Amino acid sequence: MQLSKSVELRSVSNQIDVLVVENDLAMAQISLHGGHMLSFRPKSDNRERLWLSQDAVLDGTKAIRGGIPICWPWFGDHLNKGHLGKDLPAHGYVRTKQWHVVDCVDFDATTLITLKPETAADQGLDGDADLRLTVSIGNALTVELTTKNIGAKAFEFGGALHSYFNIEDITQTQLHGLSGDYLDKTQSLFDKSFANKSSADKSSIHKRSPHQITPEKYTFEKETDNIHLSLKQHFTISSTNFSIDVVSKGHDSIVVWNPWIEKSAAMTDMSAGGYQSMLCVESAITQGITLAPNEQHSLIQTIQ
Ligand code: TA6
User: What is the dihedral sign for C-alpha 138, 302, 99, 162?
Assistant: First the structure.
């Protein structure tokens, strides 16, 4: 596939291939391992929007910690672990697959790149899907994950654009735009098999779990793993001197995650202090979406 003038393919330690993009308006990096955005820096202010762990494993052996992991075709853990007789990976399987460039074009105000995984089929997806990630890099970054049913029967899927945002100091950070109640995964009945339960079971778990009301001032002072069953589309993450705008479409939930001190320290690909400069605000499908043959669905996040 011919790349456009603004895009170059570089190898990181001869182990993963990364698309390095520089056009008039922005710089960005996308790993072909996982179809994974690693960096987005608009030239208007030259500030990095995405957080990438300094200990991220960039050799293709595991999912990359930071950037925008593509979780698909489920969010969290898969229900059928036991039935399928082998462990299925958390957050689906495409974040460790090799992706290919399908299209790469420069326009006046953006570079548009479309990627697809080597295969969208694997254990845990009961159907035939075509999966594409289209990334638009300009003043803003738009990431669009499109799932199309190309088989003869309906299937259910979930997922997330699990974006890690780069912030100055988590204790000075506020999230604006969410309201209503949320499920606190650190305390709830939310168990490992939630993601692929039937819609009725999910809604029953949500009802039985202790719900919290989103505070007017949404700040962070401990481990946070909140599922907001929210269709709201516009969020702002504000730090002391800087804010990031996020617009989400096609989601049924917004997941807000920070592992805090102990969990950061326990992760081999995150330093103990890593939690201080990151916040995940994820556009997610936690309830599952059923696609009939020929139907398609797009999960979209725009970051500015
Ligand atoms: O989206 C939040 C979450 O599901 C957390 O529960 C947390 O474990 C996180 O994602 C990271 O998951 P990972 O599989 O990348 O370690």
Answer: positive
d(CA 155, ligand 1 centre) in Å: 24
Query: For residues 249 and 231, is the Cβ–Cβ distance under 8 A?
Result: no
Tokens for 166?
């780069």
The CATH topology of domain 7-303 is Beta-galactosidase; Chain A, domain 5 (2.70.98)
Residue numbers in the chain where pLDDT is lower than 50: 82-83, 85, 192
User: Cα of 107 to ligand 1 centre, how many Å?
Assistant: 35
**Domain residue limits, the chain:** 7-303
pTM, entire model: 0.93
Centre of ligand 1 to C-alpha 5, Å, is 36
